[in-house]
Structure formats: structure tokens, C-alpha cells
Amino acid sequence: MIMHDKRIPNEQLIISIVKIAIEAGKAITEIYNSDFDYQLKKDLSPITAADNLSHNIITERLEALIPKIPILSEENCDIPYRTRSRWTQYWLVDPLDGTKEFINRNGEFTVNIALIVNKKPVLGVIHIPVKNETYWGSKVNGSFYTNENNDVQQIQVSKQYQKPIRIVASRSHPSKMLISLLEKITDYEILEVGSSMKFCLIASGQADCYPRFGPTSEWDTAAGEAIVKFAGGHMVTTNGHVMNYNSKKHYLNPNFIVSNGKIISETILHLIK
To answer: Which residue of 32, 50, 152, 183 is most buried, as measured by CB atoms within 10 A?
Structure first.
């Protein structure tokens, strides 16, 4: 059995998902290192051959691993809510998070795979293909990081309240609300980075807070939330609520705050009121 009776992922499952993310990352890197083109989807977001290839690899491997668990991927999300609403667990996948970063060739894109149980992520894997680095987190034993040399280390959020506060911001999606927030914070440092790498910086203690005041989808955040949460971090909406996945017809997230703990989250919530 790969899953426990309580639907908590075990180490065998975690290793399998990490391997799938790395395999998809290698395929993405081959296209990244070639001359590639891109198209625009209906929502005008870009898509490349790497998005589709990664999607195919991940879905095929997940279906072979545990055939009975549904898969929701950014590249195959036309699933009616009346069908999805009956799911108690499912895979939530972004086969290439940060397509704009991919196109701009800055290396800041990731492969995201999350396992959702009862609307909450219980396992998350984020692989950074260009760096060949992988982050993962689960209920089993916390959150971890491995580099290109396969050195594995457990990671935790920073538990020190320090100044300047290290705030992570999106490289490709600037926000007027973030600028307004920064005007109220006297001592801060901005770290701009693309894709779900922002969650990785929080989980590994390299940053303190990631306030997001722009559009994201559920596949953008689920894996990162798991990694941050099981590294001791915190994530809430700007209304102070926890995130619930697959709880509505559309996939858009509310604005949210990711941080190393409740103190910073509550401080940010107070400042944006």
C-alpha cells in the first residue's frame, strides 16, 4: 500500500513524487535549452511545448502510481465542478509554473505537484529544473530540500523576528497593493523571484513574508503551501481564513499572505486593513 488508511502520504509515495517531478524537469530543461516558441491560451497566458510535455509525463506517471486518484492539472482543467466536488482527494499539478520566466530564460520556473485531501494539501513537491533542486513537505516528517548532488537536508522557516523583514515579491506581476503596504513598513528588504520559488524561500528560512495581491490559481499555490506549512510556516487569505482547495467552480485564489509565522501574518493583515 502506498497510502495509509488516514490518507497521509508515506515515504515511499513521497520518493515517487519527487522522482516524477525531477523527470518532468529534465524534459523541460531539454526544451529550455533549445529554440522554442510559445502560444497564447484563451486567457492570454503563454504556453509552450514544455508545459504540455511536462503535463503528459506527470499525468502518465501519477495514473500508473495510483490509478484511482483523480488528477487536476493546469493544462487539463476543464473538469466540471459537479464532478470535482465529489473528490475527497486528488493530485493538483502545475507542470510548468512560471512560463513567463521560462520564456524570458531567467531560470525561475518550477514543477509543482500536490496531493489534496479534504481540501487541504498534505504533500507538496516543487522542483527547480535549472538548479536541479527539489523541495518537498508532508505530514510524514516535515519539509526537506535536496540539491544537484543529492544532499538532503530538513528545512524550517526562520523563527527569528528580524529587521529588515525579508519580503518576497513576484518578478513578473507587480502590485499596487504591495507598494502601498511597503510604504507602511519602515524597514524591509525586497527579494524578487518568479514562480513557486517564493514559497521555497519562506520554507527554507531565506525570507520572512510573501504577500500576494494579484491573481493566482490553485495549482500555483498548493505544493508551496504544503512545503511552507510543514516547515513551520503559515498561510492565510487576506481575510484571515485558511485556504480551501476545490471548494468553488473556478480555480482562482483569493489574495493571501505566506509567512514564517502568525505574528508576521497578523501584522500584515493589520497594515492592509
So the answer is: 50
